[in-house]
């Protein structure tokens, strides 16, 4: 039977191997086969925070991480929230949170707002929190347990463009005119 200090040392070495920058490789998997989708739950976060288009990731000893997608842009629908992922996503991974997040935006009305932080309750609850500036949004964590497929802009063109058309107008048929015709009809 091994002594307690030996087990602690072996555990530390294994964690250092898993979280070293050398663990980053193409295909989203580390040299030991670990993917970013395996790493997120080890920090108490759901795997579905990132789309399935991860080409590679790196994680340094202080929690700084970089995720590279295999395409220039990616859209994912989470319940009523449309999220945009840039090709490169960076942040600081801590137990229960991702801070200093860059490369992730959420659509609110006609604006795209950068998500600054994502966090979960410790101990875990049924909610996840997204910080956008000084606004915090609480969502069900169930929407983020499964990894979602990346879609291109064309898949969400109608949803993205609908609000734009309402504000700026459409040269072919304005939604504003359409609503006004309803209100003036007998």
UniProtKB/TrEMBL annotation:
Keywords: Signal. The keyword Protein transport does not apply. Residues 1-24 form the signal peptide. The keyword Aminoacyl-tRNA synthetase does not apply. Coiled coil: none annotated. SUPFAM superfamilies: At5g01610-like. It comes from the Eukaryota. This is Uncharacterized protein. It comes from Spirodela intermedia.
């Amino acid at each position: 039977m091994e002594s307690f200090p030996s087990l602690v040392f072996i555990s530390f070495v294994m964690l250092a191997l898993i979280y070293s920058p050398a663990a980053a490789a193409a295909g989203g998997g580390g040299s030991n086969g670990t993917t970013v989708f395996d790493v997120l739950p080890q920090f108490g976060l759901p795997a579905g925070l990132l789309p399935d288009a991860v080409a590679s990731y790196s994680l340094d000893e202080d929690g700084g991480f970089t995720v590279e997608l295999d395409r220039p842009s990616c859209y994912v629908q989470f319940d009523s929230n449309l999220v945009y992922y840039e090709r490169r996503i960076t942040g600081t991974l801590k137990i229960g949170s991702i801070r200093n997040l860059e490369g992730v935006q959420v659509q609110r009305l006609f604006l795209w707002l950068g998500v600054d932080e994502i966090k979960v309750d410790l101990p875990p609850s049924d909610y996840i929190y997204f910080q956008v500036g000084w606004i915090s949004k609480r969502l069900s964590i169930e929407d983020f347990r499964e990894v979602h497929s990346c879609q291109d802009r064309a898949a969400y063109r109608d949803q993205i463009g609908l609000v734009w058309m309402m504000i700026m107008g459409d040269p072919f048929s304005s939604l504003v005119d359409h609503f006004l015709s309803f209100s003036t009809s007998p």
